[in-house]
């Protein structure tokens, strides 16, 4: 479930941020087509959130141990640590994607009318992206927590 949570929620956030920012870019491009490529930054930043989820999902998946000799080596502790890591990364990515989408939509429309707002939009986007990065960092730390079952009783 941790693998699923990390990947699905982070990608939902990335998809929402991409779609919402893309609508703003399309609308702004009608008024000022020369700024379309410059204002593609929110779409790129939203796409990075999906990569965060992929990184955590691959790390967690690599830590899952198959049963040996009919006995589980994967403890309940490790399972919950991996679930927490996946939820941490995924939900942080979802929140960051929503923030990037809303800021990207309004920001690129505003930059289309007044180019001096570009730096302010980028700063807000950086802080929104940092939310996803915080989730990635905590998830990486959580995914390192494990306990191997000792079935030699």
TrEMBL record:
InterPro entries to which the protein is assigned, alphabetical: ATPase_proteolipid_c-like_dom, ATPase_proteolipid_csu, ATPase_proteolipid_su_C_euk, F/V-ATP_Csub_sf
CDD domains listed in its UniProt record: ATP-synt_Vo_c_ATP6C_rpt1, ATP-synt_Vo_c_ATP6C_rpt2
Record flagged with keyword Transport: yes
Transmembrane segments: 40-60, 80-105, 117-142
Organism domain of life: Eukaryota
Keyword annotations: Hydrogen ion transport, Ion transport, Membrane, Transmembrane, Transmembrane helix, Transport, Vacuole
Membrane topology: Multi-pass membrane protein
Subcellular location: Vacuole membrane
Major place of residence: membrane
GO CC field: proton-transporting V-type ATPase, V0 domain; vacuolar membrane
Residue ranges of domain V-ATPase proteolipid subunit C-like in the record: 1-60, 83-142
One Gene Ontology term of the molecular function aspect: proton-transporting ATPase activity, rotational mechanism
Family, per entry: Belongs to the V-ATPase proteolipid subunit family.
Protein name per UniProt: V-type proton ATPase proteolipid subunit
Lineage: Eukaryota, Sar, Stramenopiles, Ochrophyta, Bacillariophyta
